[in-house]
Amino acid sequence: MNKLSQWIFGLNILCVLWFSLLIHQYDNEYFFIIQFIPIILLIVFGVVSLGIILYRVSAFNDCKSAALELQMEIKEAKIALTEKGFKFD
Amino acid sequence: MTLKYSILLPTYNEKDNLPVIVYLIHKYLEISEIKYEIIIIDDGSPDGTLEVAKQLETIYGKDKILLRPRGKKLGLGTAYIHGIKHATGDFIVIMDADLSHHPKSIPEFIKKQTEQDYDVITGSRYIGNGGVSGWDFKRKLVSCGANFISQLLLRPKVSDLTGSFRLYKKPVLEKLIETCVSKGYVFQMEMMVRARQLNYTIGEVPITFVDRVYGESKLGGSEIVQFVKALLYLFATT
Ligand SMILES: Nc1nc2c(ncn2[C@@H]2O[C@H](COP(=O)(O)OP(=O)(O)OP(=O)(O)O)[C@@H](O)[C@H]2O)c(=O)[nH]1
Ligand SMILES: [Mg+2]
Fold first, then answer.
1. Which residues, other chains included, contact B102 with Cβ-Cβ below 8 Å and sequence gap of 6+?
2. Which residues of B touch A70 (CB under 8 A)?
């Protein structure tokens, strides 16, 4: 089963659960909320996703030392290669 | 018997970067006593990359530097296929020649590979002390966002799907290339998805990605369109 089918399968199950809630709980005092479950879930999902992404952006290492080290090594390479007879233009 | 590693360097207008990367590969692999060859696949760069490569061949020797140029720019994907055909190593290392990928990681890849006899080792900017350098907030956001969505949709069990600094067992890479359908740079992502599908074992090593110092960035806006297309295709088919 490919990923698309897995998603459709999962969403279907959620839909069925929600419908059965809608049908059986119409006299429930929380019926108003039950009606909006899909939208609530969608919003929660969006907010959580955004949170995860922003967290990862902030945790993304900025490797300044790697860039500096590379600059040094570029100089080193040029000197060593020139000694070996390499001609930079 | 010592194992041999073939490093593929596709180049297009990398005359400033190529000597440095070759020097660094030599520096880090020689001290680790790793047997290697560097295969340079230049696609007729107008800036004279091939002349630079020839000089390097003279300095380091024909057994270390193999020049396998092509007449014109035929793209990165076919450059790898072309390079593999000439590779004599047991393992293939794929990396960019623009110094974004640092050769010091190669011995770490090799060490990781031997730990559990992994089929594939992939460098990751997102784990441990890996990371990027010179990226602004927007670029990080796009990268993390794209990564999050692809993780969600494809669940590849690999933290860095679009990175292209990797080590493969040669037969594994040949098999993967045969299986992959996408062209262009998105095929890096497909390779990981297919590797999972074919039950290959994948190990990850943190890498630092430093933006290119010399030369122009060759990828434009069509990159995003390509990425989305590939993502949806893999989502619906794998
Ligand atoms: N042989 C060959 N090499 C290529 C071609 N296009 C790109 N390359 C090389 O492939 C590597 C990766 O390409 P880059 O242009 O660095 O792509 P990128 O890293 O996604 O983008 P920037 O670093 O921002 O430019 C570099 O070593 C390039 O020189 C091609 O058509 N043929
Ligand atoms: Mg690059």
1. A66, A70, B24, B207, B208, B210
2. 99, 102, 210, 213
